[in-house]
Write a structure and sequence with these properties.
elongated; single chain; 2 domains; 6-stranded mixed beta sheet; 9-stranded mixed beta sheet; alpha/beta; about 400 residues
């Protein structure tokens, strides 16, 4: 765990959000309900008990209440929840100035050391008989008076340590740290369901992750084009790392093996320079067929597909083929195709991967690695229609594996 200070007095986690605040009141309340429900679900899945959770009266803060011993584990989970901007382990007391002073002194005793330079950061929401400045002055003086041998000094500009006091209506929350989250984003909502087409590129996984961060519920479809399956464990392990960010109760992958189909096409195709275009159309036709297959429980609720195409020359397929084939995918796929990493350079993708998880690893996903690829939409349509592989695709989908992550 990072260098966080979990004081023995803490019994709740104060949760802040940012982007949600910009929404209309109706949308904001809807998203906050999903945010609280998502946090509740992932805490339960991780086996971290909590007493209750609630929204502040002004809807600006979310509070989850814990036993003190469970605070560290809860922090590690909540800081990965999309929609959360920052969190603070805290204690709660009344809005009575005497109680605020006494509880802040308790925290100061744990936080401050001799010769410390500190500041109190006071925020207030609601009607009270005092101002924020008055609270800071009274409580600050009480701290200095209670520790006469500490030689404490106040510096509001460059303090070494800070203690925060948030007075919200009838309650006050006191804490010493603001823990920023890495991702922010929006809470995941179940009505935003999307497929993620993953052939093994990290850019596919990252594309799915970025839409997850924007509040989408994702259903990864792993289309296996590899000859050797040794990398499948790495592939699944990569998605298990993404699963750490998923709040829903069930997260599973669908794996469809098309290596033998592609091998046959690769040996039979006279115009082999169209192989990449054919492969891409096959993959999107598989997605369309999956969505019409009642075997897969999500087939009636998907709203879009996510694709990890990135125009950075890091794929085995030429960028121009990927881009041109996107234009005709609408012939066989009924849903919009989102390409969130299409403008990312190779360095950007390499930077993002370890931020998601340091355990993500590349795999050798394409055994064909065709060269000198070409694209002509009319010719590709003719070539593809002449393949007559519909039954082969149906058989691959029939034999598809549903792999439960949790």
């Amino acid at each position: 765990m990072e260098d966080y200070h979990f004081l023995k007095q803490y019994n709740l986690i104060l949760i802040r959000y940012a982007e949600i605040w910009l929404k209309s009141q109706k949308v904001k309340i809807r998203m906050l309900k999903y945010l609280m429900n998502n946090i509740k679900n992932i805490l339960k899945r991780k086996g971290i008990p909590f007493h209750k959770y609630q929204l502040s009266k002004d809807s600006s803060r979310v509070f989850f209440f814990f036993n003190n011993k469970d605070i560290p584990s809860a922090v590690s989970v909540i800081k990965n929840a999309f929609g959360v901007h920052s969190i603070s382990p805290a204690i709660r007391t009344s809005n009575n100035l005497k109680n605020i002073t006494e509880r802040t002194i308790e925290i100061a005793k744990e936080v401050l050391e001799k010769n410390d330079i500190f500041a109190l950061r006071v925020k207030r929401s609601g009607n009270h008989s005092y101002t924020s400045i008055e609270v800071a002055q009274i409580v600050g003086k009480a701290i200095i008076d209670n520790f006469p041998n500490y030689n404490l000094k106040v510096n509001l500009t460059q303090p070494k340590k800070q203690i925060y006091i948030e007075i919200r209506g009838e309650f006050t929350y006191i804490f010493s740290q603001v823990i920023k989250t890495k991702w922010g984003g929006l809470p995941i909502e179940p009505q935003k369901k999307m497929l993620v087409m993953d052939i093994g590129r990290l850019s596919d996984l990252i594309a799915g992750f970025l839409l997850l961060r924007r509040g989408s519920e994702i259903y990864p479809i792993l289309i296996d084009i590899k000859e050797h399956k040794a990398d499948n464990e790495v592939w699944l392990s990569n998605w298990k790392e993404v699963g750490e960010y998923v709040p829903y109760h069930r997260f599973q992958l669908v794996k469809i093996d098309i290596y033998n189909i592609l091998k046959k096409i690769n040996s039979d195709l006279r115009d082999n320079q169209y192989f990449c275009g054919v492969c891409r159309l096959i993959r999107f036709e598989i997605l369309s067929k999956i969505l019409k297959n009642p075997k897969y429980h999500f087939h009636e609720k998907i709203r879009a597909t996510i694709d990890g195409t990135s125009l950075n020359r890091s794929s085995f397929c030429p960028d121009s083929i990927d881009l041109d084939t996107l234009a005709i995918n609408s012939l066989i796929h009924d849903f919009p195709i989102f390409t969130p990493v299409i403008g990312f350079g190779k360095g950007r993708i390499e930077d993002l991967a370890p931020k998601i998880s340091k355990n993500l690893r590349n795999i050798n996903y394409c055994p064909f690695k065709p060269e000198n690829q070409e694209f002509d939409s009319e010719k590709l349509k003719i070539i593809y229609n002449d393949l007559k592989i519909d039954k082969l695709l149906e058989e691959s989908i029939k034999n598809g594996l549903e792999i439960k992550i949790f």
